[in-house]
Amino acid sequence: MRKFQLLVFVLFLGVQSVSASNDWGKKGHRTTGEIAQKHLSKKAERKINALLNGHTLAFVSNHGDDIKSDQAYRSYSPWHYVNYPFDSSYEAHPKSEKGDLITGIATCVAVLKDEKASKEDKIFHLKMLVHFVGDLHQPLHVGIADDKGGNDFQVRWFNDGTNLHSVWDTKMIEDYGMSYTELAASADPLSSYQLAEVEKGTVIDWMNESRTLCKEIYANAEIGDKLGYRYMYDYTSVFRSQLQKGGIRLAVLLNDIFG
C-alpha cells in the first residue's frame, strides 16, 4: 500500500511539472504588458495600435503560450527559455540548434525592423516579443537543463505538491491576490535615475541579471521543501520588481523598433 501511495504521489508531482511551463502565467505576462504600455513613446504606441488593431500589449502578452497546443508552432517552444550549467556562461556553452530565448528575442526584433517583412509576420513576432521579454524576467527561464528549469525540482507550496518553476510562474503571484491591472498600477515609483538604471543594458545583460536571481533561488531551496509565508515574505518584492523591469525593458525595445 505504501508503494502504491508513493507512486500516486510521484505521478501527481509529475503532472504538476508538465502543467507548470507557462512562464509567468497569464497574470504575470499581462502585468508586464500593461507596464510596458505605459512606457511607450507616442509614435511607438500609434504604430503598435495599427498592428494590433487597437489591442493592448497586455491583451496579446500570452499569445506565445496560447499557440503551444498547435503543432504548427511547436518549433517555437525552445524560444521560451535558455538553459546552461551554473558553472558556465551563455557565450561559452554550446547553443541549441533549435534556438533559445535570446535568439528568439533577436529574431522578433529583426523581423519588426525589417521593412520588407509582411504585416502578418510583424504582428506575429510583435506578440511573441511581448511574451519572450516577460519570459526573460522569470528567473527559472534562465535556468539549467538538468531539471528543466525547475520543473523537475519538486517542492510543496503550503500543503500542495508542485515544483519550483510553478512557484515562480504562478503560485506567488496568485497568492499575492492582485489583478494584473492592480499589479501594474502598484509598481514601485522610480526616480529618473532609477528608471534609467533599469532601462540600460542589452538583452544579454538582462538575461545575466535574471541568471543571478536564478542561482540565488536554487541556493535557497532544496527538493522537498515546504514553501509558504516565509518564501512569500522573502521574494514578493523580487517578483514584483522583475515584472516591472520586464515591462520597462519591453518598452525600451519597442520604442527603439517603432521610434
From TrEMBL:
Keywords: Disulfide bond, Endonuclease, Glycoprotein, Hydrolase, Metal-binding, Nuclease, Signal. InterPro entries: PLipase_C/P1_nuclease_dom_sf, S1/P1nuclease. GO terms for molecular function: endonuclease activity; hydrolase activity, acting on ester bonds; metal ion binding; nucleic acid binding. SUPFAM superfamilies: Phospholipase C/P1 nuclease. Residues 1-20 form the signal peptide. One of its GO terms (biological process) is DNA catabolic process. It comes from the Bacteria. This is S1/P1 Nuclease. The lineage of its organism: Bacteria, Pseudomonadati, Bacteroidota, Flavobacteriia, Flavobacteriales.
